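User: You have something folded?
Assistant:
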Amino acid sequence: MSLTIDNSDGALPIEYAEVTITRIMFRNGGSEYQINGDTCRLLDIQELLSDSGIGREMHVIVGQGQLDSVLHADPMGRRAFIEEAAGVLKHRRRKEKALRKLDAMQANLARVQDLTDELRRQLKPLGRQAAVARRAAVIQADLRDARLRLLADDLVRLREALRAEIADEAALKERKETAEAELKKALQREGQLEDEVRRLAPGSRTRGRPGTNSPSSPNGCAARSPWPTRA
């Protein structure tokens, strides 16, 4: 079902010279509303027609059968009629709609606040655990630094001990070489003295007899040097 309205005078707040309002009804009881072929809500149609005097409960043209009901209505009924005729009903409905949205928003904010409080309660132990973890990390770092300092001190002491050992070894080697040189000189001097003793010993110039291999004494015995000789 469609209703076409001439809007060439701009009575309806829409930028169309002709407005077609359509309602499509389905077998399941549902409905679909359209304005110029675009799907919309029933509330959109009511707001569009609210300032034109057209529409359910919004017309200002009072029928002959409705005049008596308006005159005999209670104050609340007459107030509703006057608000509808003056175009106040549209704004009141918008206000009610805004209030409903505000109530829904407040309910959502309350749920968000509850969720925030719950998250804070859950985060408190996590915050304590994080603080403990940070403290443990600081202690571990201090312990690691202390161990590194101890290892560095041990390394310095070991290097100093190694240098001392190397210096002692060099000194021992030098003393050994000096002692070996002195010993060599002493042995050379000893050989020279032995040669001098043999040269100066009695009978050292006596020729040996024929058939003998060594000098002999007058009694036929080989002459012996009173000084010991080297083996």
